[in-house]
Recover the amino acids of this structure.
């Protein structure tokens, strides 16, 4: 059984999603919802043993599955997770439950299709995190665009068509270059699509730089890094709450994960060579996008820009080539999954009641929604990086790594703690405190049990990770050490 | 006088002979058919095609066999292409059934007989080893199709399309014939394998040969429908009755692929450098103009016509990369050809499904071939919308659909041959192409229907379109079988 855990984590949501489609085809929405929740929980249950049964001392691949898929091109169904990817499979399976629950009462139209799209996407994302074959990775990577395209386009806001197209075409552009890079590696390696083989493959510096740039475009669009980030605010604003949660919590991690699985180990020399470029782009994201977030009038846009800034921290952490930096970045990725997911859910809670995301339409929400205000406060603090929340741990580790790497980089990175606090808390103040702004706010009702449960669970995760991050860091340590040892060795022969 | 007459080996051509015989029989039997639905004619036609399929499977030896004084060849490539050809035509006829029955002037026995003759023409093309055989097959196909396009006599657009198709098709045949005569002049033979031998032994007038090659490639480009010889495609696709568009847009691509392989690879492999350069230009132009022009279309059939142009351009890349120049030595790479073949087969499968969907939406008396007719399809029938979604993403080359692996295998051949820039161009145009396929999905899923009536279809149509859509998905997840078949066939044939 434990040999097929990854396959189960991938295919239970996908097949379950198809079953939800069938169950809901007769218009029976409650049946579709119930089944979707069951599938999501089942998906999470098979993911838990991945964490529990994970061998912390082993930095290599675990739970490996290998089968012939397309022998014509030597493509294998090759799955496995290491300390870097395992947490994301668990996180993704967990977030799926939140997403299904988040759309419970809100989505009334095409309920079965909505839930099926999320479940299928969840399975595909698990596939991305556990694929060890280049083509298998690519197939999952690109197929995951389809459900998200539909989610934004069908259930999104007024400008949803534009946002859906922009999202799809931007990310497709990146992934097509990735495909060519994979084919080049296939030929260079003498006919292997195994990512692990490619890690060992000697490549000249010139070729490494081309590969690195192709990877950079593909993953930078996904992360997204400045200047290819412009699709994200549009997609976030127009997506339904569940779509925003998945985008922020999981989809953005795919790009960052790609850096660790492809760019660094396959092109280590080029990574060193071009690290300055990536660090510069990351710092622009951290500082400049932070200021952009400050001036947003739309809450979802604000959190979207703050996501870009937080992901800037992640890429910054990766390219300092220290275990502190990479582990900090990974912690930041997981933490951002909880915190940004919760932030988007909070905005969704308010939007469902007032049907506006403009900060100006709110004020004094604490008077009518005290429980909500307290939880929202926690997540805002975590988003700003307050100690004892998960947001602090990752940022602190990355900044520590940066101090060792270069003092001025550290200063720039640390300034984001201030900017982050400014935009998050200023928004919080304008929305929650003050006098009751208008009759919409006066008529607000506090969170119901479902909403409270979702926010409560996310709050526990945020605090747990902030107070006791060891269970998260100890699983990744061996793999990160291996990765760094590998990256330090030149591949040029 | 008949001293040296040898009865040719008929076995390799058994399916052709059977089909020709049955087509004539059906023509006679149809005279007695009183049933306005022409069930008997339809059933016999389908049985004939199934019979061909069985004979093909039974007589296939896997070796390269020549017969009729070397004018006809039967190899694994031919067997495989013909098997897919029969299946395509069977599916096409099933799709067309309702559409044809609803239209008085098309519901004639000739419709079925012409389809069979067109099929026979394609089979002859696929197995041709002689310029005259190629020409015979091509004309049999073309003349049948001209008549079928014009079959809906009341329709002005159909008649216009038939005229255009006829005039331009005749021009293309002329170009092809002219090229053939030049090559005959240079080599002194019309036999394709013979030409290859003459070129090998040298002493052939290169300039006459190159001159002939240009015309030959132009003629082929016409038949494949690639830029700059593509002008007829949008008009004919648009103007022809949809059931005929379905036929034109699917099966003949297999035959066009086959004659391209026969002429350029079997015959003129020594000229590979020359025709490679031409095909690269044709291919890049087709991908560019096909994909860009498709964006501007409002008619679904026209959009698919431009999409066909771009797909054929993409497929040509596989043929281009089949000959690799290693230190001045030409190395044949059958894998590249097999990727092109896989691409054609995948394209035919997707194209059949897409036109099948247009047929399904059409009603007695009016067509549903505008893009706006797709609006809100998800509300009217979620399953059909789902099938169309799979077909569109497959055409765009998004996994897990067969279109992805079709593009994948061709691109892989391009990269392996060292044409990195060509691969980059190809993926960039694929990106542009993705836009209009996405727009179809947008119309179906994001928009509200103009006609909110639920879309229903007859049971056979439902089964067929579902099977087609699921095949696109299933073969996208498990493409190995067809890929391996194509690779094996190409290894054994070249």
């Amino acid at each position: 059984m434990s040999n097929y855990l990854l396959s189960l984590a991938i295919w239970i949501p996908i097949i379950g999603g198809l079953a939800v489609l069938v169950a809901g085809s007769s218009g029976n929405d409650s049946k579709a919802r119930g089944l979707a929740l069951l599938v999501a929980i089942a998906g999470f249950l098979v993911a838990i043993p991945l964490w529990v049964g994970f061998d912390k001392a082993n930095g290599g691949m675990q739970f490996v599955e290998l089968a012939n898929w397309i022998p014509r091109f030597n493509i294998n169904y090759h799955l496995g997770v290491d300390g870097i990817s395992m947490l994301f499979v668990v996180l993704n399976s967990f977030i799926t439950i939140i997403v299904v629950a988040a759309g419970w009462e809100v989505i009334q139209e095409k309920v079965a299709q909505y839930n099926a799209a999320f479940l299928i996407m969840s399975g595909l994302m698990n596939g991305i995190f556990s694929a060890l074959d280049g083509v298998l990775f690519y197939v999952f990577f690109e197929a995951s665009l389809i459900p998200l395209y539909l989610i934004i386009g069908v259930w999104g806001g007024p400008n949803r068509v534009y946002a859906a197209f922009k999202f799809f075409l931007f990310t497709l552009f990146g992934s097509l270059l990735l495909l060519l890079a994979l084919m080049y590696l296939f030929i260079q390696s003498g006919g292997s699509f195994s990512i692990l083989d490619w890690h060992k493959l000697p490549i000249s510096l010139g070729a490494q730089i081309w590969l690195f740039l192709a990877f950079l475009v593909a993953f930078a669009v996904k992360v997204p890094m400045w200047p290819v980030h412009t699709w994200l605010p549009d997609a976030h604003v127009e997506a339904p709450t569940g779509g925003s949660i998945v985008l922020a919590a999981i989809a953005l991690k795919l790009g960052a994960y790609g850096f660790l699985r492809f760019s660094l180990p396959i092109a280590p020399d080029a990574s060193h060579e071009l690290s300055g470029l990536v660090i510069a782009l990351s710092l622009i994201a951290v500082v400049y996008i932070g200021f952009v977030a400050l001036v947003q009038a739309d809450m979802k846009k604000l959190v979207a820009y703050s996501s870009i800034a937080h992901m800037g921290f992640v890429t910054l952490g990766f390219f300092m080539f220290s275990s502190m930096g990479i582990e900090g970045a990974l912690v930041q990725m997981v933490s951002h999954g909880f915190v940004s997911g919760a932030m988007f859910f909070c905005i969704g809670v308010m939007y469902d009641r007032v049907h506006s995301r403009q900060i100006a339409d709110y004020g004094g929400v604490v008077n009518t929604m005290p429980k909500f205000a307290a939880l929202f406060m926690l997540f805002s603090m975590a988003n700003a990086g307050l100690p004892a929340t998960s947001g602090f741990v990752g940022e602190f580790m990355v900044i520590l790594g940066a101090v060792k790497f270069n003092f001025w980089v550290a200063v720039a990175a640390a300034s984001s703690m201030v900017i982050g606090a400014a935009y998050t808390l200023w928004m919080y103040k304008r929305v929650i405190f003050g006098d009751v702004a208008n009759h919409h706010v006066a008529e607000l009702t506090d969170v119901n049990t479902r909403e409270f449960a979702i926010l409560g669970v996310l709050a526990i995760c945020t605090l747990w990770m902030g107070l006791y991050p060891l269970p998260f860091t100890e699983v990744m340590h061996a793999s990160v050490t291996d990765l760094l040892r590998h990256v330090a060795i030149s591949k040029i022969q | 006088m008949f001293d040296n007459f040898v009865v040719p080996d008929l076995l390799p051509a058994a399916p052709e002979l059977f089909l020709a015989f049955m087509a004539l029989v059906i023509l006679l039997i149809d005279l007695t058919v009183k049933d306005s639905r022409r069930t008997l004619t339809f059933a016999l036609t389908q049985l004939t095609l199934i019979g061909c399929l069985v004979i093909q499977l039974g007589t296939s030896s896997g070796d390269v066999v020549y017969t009729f004084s070397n004018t006809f060849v039967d190899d694994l490539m031919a067997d495989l292409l013909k098997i897919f050809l029969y299946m395509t035509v069977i599916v096409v006829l099933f799709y067309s059934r309702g559409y044809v029955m609803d239209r008085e002037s098309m519901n004639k026995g000739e419709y079925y007989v012409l389809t069979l003759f067109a099929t026979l023409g394609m089979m002859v093309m696929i197995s041709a080893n002689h310029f005259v055989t190629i020409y015979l097959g091509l004309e049999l196909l073309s003349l049948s199709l001209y008549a079928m396009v014009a079959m809906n006599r009341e329709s002005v657009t159909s008649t216009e399309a038939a005229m255009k198709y006829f005039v331009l098709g005749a021009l293309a045949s002329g170009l092809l014939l002219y090229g053939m005569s030049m090559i005959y002049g240079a080599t002194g033979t019309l036999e394709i394998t013979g030409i290859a031998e003459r070129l090998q032994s040298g002493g052939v007038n290169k300039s006459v040969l190159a001159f002939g090659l240009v015309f030959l490639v132009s003629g082929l480009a016409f038949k494949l429908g690639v830029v700059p010889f593509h002008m007829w495609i949008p008009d004919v696709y648009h103007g022809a009755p949809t059931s005929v568009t379905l036929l034109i847009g699917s099966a003949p691509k297999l035959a066009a692929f086959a004659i391209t392989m026969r002429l350029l690879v079997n015959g003129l492999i020594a000229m590979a450098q020359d025709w490679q350069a031409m095909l690269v230009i044709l291919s890049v132009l087709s991908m560019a103009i096909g994909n860009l022009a498709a964006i501007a279309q409002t008619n679904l059939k026209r959009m698919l016509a431009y999409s066909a142009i771009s797909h054929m351009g993409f497929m040509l890349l596989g043929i281009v990369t089949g000959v690799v120049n290693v230190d001045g030595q030409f190395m044949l790479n059958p894998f590249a050809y097999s990727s092109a073949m896989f691409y054609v087969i995948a394209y035919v499968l997707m194209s059949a499904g897409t036109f099948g969907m247009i047929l399904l939406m059409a009603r007695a008396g009016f067509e549903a071939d505008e893009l706006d007719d797709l609006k809100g399809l998800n509300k009217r029938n979620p399953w059909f919308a789902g099938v169309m979604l799979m077909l569109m993403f497959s055409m765009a080359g998004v996994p897990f659909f067969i279109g992805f692996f079709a593009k994948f295998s061709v691109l892989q051949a391009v990269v392996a041959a060292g044409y990195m820039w060509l691969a980059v161009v190809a993926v960039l145009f694929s990106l542009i192409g993705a836009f209009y396929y996405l727009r179809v999905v947008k119309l179906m899923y994001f928009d509200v229907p103009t006609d909110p009536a639920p879309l229903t279809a007859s049971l056979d149509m439902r089964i067929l379109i579902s099977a087609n859509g699921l095949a696109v998905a299933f073969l996208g997840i498990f493409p190995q079988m067809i890929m391996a078949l194509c690779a094996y066939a190409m290894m054994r044939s070249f």
